[in-house]
Amino acid sequence: MKKIAGRIVWALISLAAAFFLTAIAVDRGEPVNSFWIVLAAACTYLLGFRFYARFIAAKVMALDDQRATPAERLRDGHDYEPTNKWILFGHHFAAIAGPGPLVGPTLAAQFGYLPSVYWIIIGAVLGGAVQDFVILFCSMRRDGKTLGQMARDEIGKTGGITALLTVLFIMIILLAVVALVVVNALRGSPWGTFTIAATMPIALFMGVYLRYLRPGKVLECSTVGFVLVIASIFGGQAVANSPLLAPWFTLSATSLAIAIIIYGFLSSVLPIWLFLAPRDYLSTFIKLGVVAMLAVGILVVHPTLQLPAFTRFVDGTGPIFAGKVFPFVFITIACGAVSGFHSLISSGTTPKMIAREWNAWPIGYGSMLLEGFVAIMALIAACSLQPGVFFAVNSPPGVVGTTPAAAVSTISNWGYPVSVAEMNALAADAGEKTLFYRTGGAPSLALGMAHIFSSTGGGKAILGFWYHFAIMFEALFILTIIAAGTRVGRFMLSDLLGHAYPSLKRSTWMPGVFATSGLVVLAWGYFLYQGVRDPLGGINSLWPLFGIANQLLAAIALCVGTTIFIKMHRARYMWITAVPLAWLVAVTFTAGYQKIFSDQPRVGFLSEASHLQSAIDAGTIAAGRISEAQSQIFNDRLDAAVCGMFLIMVALILVDSIRVWFRILGDTREVKVDETPFVLSRLQAEEL
Amino acid sequence: MRAFLRGVMVLLREIADENAYQRHLQSVGRVHSAEEWRRFLDERLAHKFAQGKCC
What we know:
The structure holds 2 protein chains of 2 kinds. By secondary structure, chain A is mostly helical. Helices cover 70% and strands 0% of the residues of chain A. Chain A has one domain (2-188, 251-666): Amino acid/polyamine transporter I (Up-down Bundle), CATH 1.20.1740. Chain A is globular, with a radius of gyration of 25 Å. The two termini of chain A are 32 Å apart. Chain B is mainly alpha-helical. Chain B has one domain. Chain B is flat, with a radius of gyration of 14 Å. The chains are: A mainly alpha, B mainly alpha. Chains A and B meet through helix 4, helix 8, helix 9, helix 10 and helix 12 of A and helix 1, helix 2 and helix 3 of B.
C-alpha cells in the first residue's frame, strides 16, 4: 500500500514538472510569475535526485554502506573525520556556493529568462550535479585524492600537469573577473565603498578577538562582526550624506582596482588568523543567511518576471556581452548549472569526512541541485526588474551612449522603455548618485534582491538599506575569494618555481612569500586593470573567458569520471559522464573559437584588434587616444592567446583520455582499478 | 522545530571549526587553553587555505 502511494506521489510530481516546464515556455502574452519557475525547478530537481542520481549511485557506483570510508579508516580527528550527513551537506554547500551562480544568471538574463531557466534546471540535473557526485565518489574510493592526482593516476602525466596548470590559470582569470564585479559595484558609491572599507578593520578586530581576547569562540566573534558590519551599512549612509566625508569615499574604477590589488597582496602576506580567517567565517555565515533570506523572500513575494522569455539579444547583439544565445548562455551561467571548480571541493575536504558511502548521494548530487536553486533565485531577482532598468544598469557607455539621455534613448529604442527621471528616482531610493553603467551584474542583482526584501515590509523607505546590504554581502564574499585565491595561487607558484629555486618552497621565507604573492597579484591585477579600462565594460571579454575556463575544468573532471567508469567495467554506463562531457566540449570549443576568431569585433578578440589597428592606420582615432587603442589591441591579442591556451590544454587531456578509453575497451585483459580495497565498516550509528 | 534548530547550531559550529576543535581536544587528550586553540587554529587554517574558494 505504501509502495503504491509512493508511486502515485512520484507520478504526480512528474506530471507537475512537465506541466510547469511547459507552462513557463508557452507564451500567453502575459508576464510569468516567479512561482511557476520555482515549482518547475523544485519538481525537476526532486525527480533528478530520486531517480537519476539514485540510479547512478546504485547501478553504476554500487555504493555500499558496509564499506568503510576514508573518514573511518584514516580517522585522525583533523582532516579525516566521519561527519553527520546533513552537517556535511551544509559544509559542502557552503564551500561550493560562490558568486558565480549569482552573477552568471544575472548577466545571462539579457537573453530573457527562458534559456537560463532551462539550462539551470537541465544542466544541473544532467551535468553539474553528476560531475560533483562522480568526482566525490571517485575521490572517496581513493582515500580523498585530489582531481589533479586522479587525472595523473587514471589518465596519465599529461592529464595531471595540464589539470594543475588549468587550475592556476582559471584562478587568475576568476580573481580578475570577480574583482571587476566589485569595482563596478562600488565605483562612485561612497555608501558602498565605506561599508566595504569598514569590513577591513572589523576583520582585523575579529582576528585579534578570536586569538587573544576570546580564543575558540568563533560563533560569538562572528556575531560581533556581523553586528559591526550592519552598523557599517548605516555608517555608510551617513558618510554618503556628508558633504565632508562623501568625496573621500567616492572612488573611480581605477582607484578601486588599485585598492583591491593592494588588498589582495596584503591578505596573501598577512597571517591567516589576523585577516583572512575571520573574514571567511563571517562571509560564510552571511552567505548562508542571505541565501535563506532570498528563498523566503521569493516564496513570500513571488515577484512577477518583468523580462520577457526571450529578448532580441538572442541574435548575439546583447549590450552586456556580445554573442549568440548558443553557446554564450551556457558559459555565462557557468556555476549555476555546471561548475568545474566544484570538482576541486568534491576531491578536497568533503570525501575525507563522509561517514557512509550512500551519504555521497545527497552531499555530492543534492548540494549542486541546491546551488542550481540559488541560480534560479538570482535569475528571478534580476528578471523582476523592469527590462529598461535592467539594461540601463548593466550596459556599458561604449554600447548605449556616454550620457544618461543617450543611454535611455538607445535602450528605449530597443523596445525596453526607461527614462532618466525613472533611473534618477530609483538611484535616490537606493542611496546612489546614479545607477547607469553599473556593469558586472552585482548592482542589478542587489537591486532585484532589495526589491524583494523591501516588498516583505518597509517598501521604498528601506530600499537603500537592502540595496547596500546586498552589495555588502556580494562584495564581502567576493573579496574573501580574492584573498584566499591569491594565497592559493602563491602556493601553486612557489611549488612550481621551487623546482628552480628551492627556498621559494619554504612558506616562512618572507622574500619568497612577497615575490610569489606579488607575481600572482600582478597577473590577475593586469586583467582587472584591463577590464576597468575597457570601453565595453570589461565584462564583455572577461566573463566569457572565465566561463570557458570554468567549463573546461568541468570537462577535465568528466574525462576523469568517464575513465574511472570504464576501468570499473561500467562502460555501458559511460554515457552518464560522456554525454555532458561531449556537450561541454561542444559548447566551450564553439565559444572559445568564436571569442578568438569571430569576425564581429565585439565578439572576436582578434577581430577587435584588427578593427582597432585599421582605425589607427586610417587615422580615424584621435591622436590622444592612440596609445589607449594600442593597449586595447595588445589586450585583445593576450585574451585570444589565453583562450587558445585553455582550449589546447583541454584538447590534450581529451585526446589522452580517449586514447586511454580505446586502449581499455580494446584490451581483453583485466584492467586494474585504482580503488582502495574493501574494508568492512565498524562505524556505529551513535558515532554520528 | 527544536531538532531543526539544534541541527542548525551544530552546522554553524562545524563551519566555525568549533566542533573540529572539540574533536582535536579529545584526540590529543588536552583541555581548552588559549595556547591550545592557537596551535589548533594555525594548523587548521594552513590546511584550509591551501585550497581556493569556489566560484
